[in-house]
């Protein structure tokens, strides 16, 4: 029997907690084990409930989500954290990911993405909803004259994240630079690179660059 993913909810609005709880209870593999309305109790609550995933709002009373992450960092993380916030400011996204959060969802996209986000983060990968991910990618490629993002929508072979990775590899970003710019781990970058090469049946980076040029992902 597969062990259920234990989830703790932290938000200052009980109505939101109730709505999320009802949604997550529809998934057989999920179990909502507790909730917090106040930031100061979250660390103890998560340990007591033995939660694997914490859905954490940034705007919490007495101790906000960023301070909660700092506490987790000081005491060691008892679970994986997905930020669920009304804000989509990249400065905030960057700060919480550096503090150890594994995912970031805006509340307006939570209904359609939260189930996938929990499964991805539970599998030890980072997750961003499409809106946040696109803002991250656009923030540092906007002024790159070699980028041809219009060709992304035409590509049916690679996922949006894989397209971002192959493009950055082709633009000579190192694995570390891709990791820092996309707010994902170096291990995640390497996993994507291997998957891309397997999909495209390429043996080296030169093949990836040729593919990017041929498919107009970057300009010569």
Helix percentage: 40-55%
Number of strands: 6
**What gross morphology would you assign?**
elongated
Give the oligomeric state of the chains in this entry, treating copies of one chain as homo and distinct chains as hetero. single chain
Uncertain stretches:
none
Let me know the average pLDDT: 89
Q: Give the SSE string.
A: EHEHEHEHEHEHHHHH
The chain-level structural class is: alpha/beta
**Domain tally:** 2
Q: Roughly what fraction of the amino acids lie in strands?
A: 5-15%
Give the neighbour order of strands across the main sheet.
2-1-3-4-5-6
Q: Roughly how many Å is the radius of gyration?
A: 19 Å
CATH topology of the largest domain: Rossmann fold
Distinct helical segment count: 10
| CATH class descriptor name of the largest domain | Alpha Beta
Give an overview of the whole structure.
The chain is α/β, with parallel strands linked by helices and 220 residues long. It folds into two domains: 5-129, Response regulator (Rossmann fold); 144-214, Winged helix-like DNA-binding domain superfamily/Winged helix DNA-binding domain (Arc Repressor Mutant, subunit A), CATH 1.10.10.10. Helix content is 49%, strand content 13%. It has helices spanning 14-24, 42-49, 65-75, 90-98, 110-122, 130-141, 160-170, 175-182, 186-200, 205-214, and strands at residues 5-10, 30-36, 53-56, 80-85, 103-106, 127-128. The chain has a six-stranded parallel beta sheet, sandwiched between helices. The longest helix is centred in the C-terminal third of the chain and has 15 residues, at 186-200. The radius of gyration is 19 Å and the shape is elongated. The N and C termini lie far apart (53 Å).
């Amino acid at each position: 029997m597969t062990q259920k993913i234990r989830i703790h909810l932290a938000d200052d609005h009980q109505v939101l907690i109730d709505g999320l709880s009802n949604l997550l209870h529809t998934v057989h593999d999920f179990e909502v084990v507790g909730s917090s309305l106040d930031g100061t109790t979250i660390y103890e609550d998560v340990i007591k409930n033995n939660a694997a995933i914490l859905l954490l709002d940034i705007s919490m009373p007495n101790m906000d989500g960023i301070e909660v992450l700092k506490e987790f960092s000081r005491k060691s993380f008892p679970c994986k954290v997905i930020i669920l916030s009304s804000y989509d400011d990249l400065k905030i996204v960057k700060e919480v990911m550096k503090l150890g959060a594994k995912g970031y969802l805006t509340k307006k996209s939570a209904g359609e993405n939260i189930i996938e986000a929990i499964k991805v983060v539970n599998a030890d990968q980072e997750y961003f909803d499409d809106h946040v991910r696109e803002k991250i990618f656009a923030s540092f490629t906007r002024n790159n004259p070699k980028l041809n993002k219009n060709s992304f929508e035409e590509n049916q072979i690679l996922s949006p994240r894989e397209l971002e990775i192959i493009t950055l590899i082709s633009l000579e970003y190192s694995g570390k630079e891709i990791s820092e710019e996309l707010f994902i781990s170096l291990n995640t970058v390497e996993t994507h690179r291997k998957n891309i090469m397997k999909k495209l049946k390429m043996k080296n980076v030169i093949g990836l660059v040729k593919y990017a040029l041929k498919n107009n992902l970057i300009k010569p």
